[in-house]
Amino acid sequence: MVCATPLKYSDRRRVEPDRSGVIYLEMGTFYAKCKIENPAERTRAAVLERLLVDTGSEFTWAPGKMLEKIGIKPEKKDVGFVLANGEKITRSVGFAIIRLDKFFTIDEIVFAEPGDLTLLGARTLEGLNLAVEPSRRRLVAAGPLPAAPVVKARK
What we know:
The chain is mainly beta and about 160 residues long.
């Protein structure tokens, strides 16, 4: 079982906009716009306007019907997940190219069913080399990637 996956829409509390019209769901939550591409046929793609950035979810979740429409096929079936409310579910998982601005990565993506949240998960954020800036509710470049030091050959 994979842990730390999202609540379903029906489990989330309803939040009304404040006087300025801004909606604050919970501390530090915000959305990102991403393009999802079929890695085998990159011209087959779809844009998701609102993916909830969720570092508590390992995987990125996108509507299964949309993934099927752009030709992404389930590679793993009946993968077990535990929702934040403790409910156990299974979903299919496939591979997709995920783009956000100039950043892109290939990652596993969950075929979300109706009622599931659409999420940008921690593994995808790591692959994109992006970090969450919680005070400003945005994604920022994470900087240089760590690497092993160069070892000089001994004479």
